[in-house]
Amino acid sequence: MSELPAAAVDRVIRKGGAPRVSEDAAKELAEILEEYGIKIAQKAVNLSTHAKRKTITAEDIRLAVKSL
Q1: Which terminus of the chain is more exposed, N or C, with fewer CB under 10 A?
Q2: In Å, what is the CA distance from 24 to each residue of 9, 29, 32, 42, 63?
Q3: Full set of structural domains in the chain with CATH
Q4: What is the reported pTM?
C-alpha cells in the first residue's frame, strides 16, 4: 500500500492529459512512484554519505535521478 494520496496521484495523471482516471490506475501509479522514489532516496543517501554529510541536498537528489 502506497503512502502517496490517491487524489494527488490522480491530479498528476490528469496533468498528463487524461480526462478521466480510474482509482486502480491512480493506486498503481502511486505504488510505482513510491518504489522509484525510494530508489532515488537510497542513491541520494549514498551520495551524501560519500560526501561525509548527513543531510540530503537537492543536488544529491538531482544526481541520484541522473544516475538511475
Answers
A1: N
A2: 11, 9, 12, 27, 32
A3: 6-67 (1.10.20.10)
A4: 0.89
DSSP state of 66: H
Read off the amino acid at residue 65: V
Report whether 14 contacts 25 (CB < 8 A).
no
Residue type, 62: R
Q: What is the pLDDT of residue 1?
A: 79
Q: Which of 30, 31, 35, 11 is nearest to 21 (CA)?
A: 11
Taking CA atoms, 26 is separated from 15, 37, 54, in Å, by: 13, 16, 34
Cell representation of residue 29 = 501509479
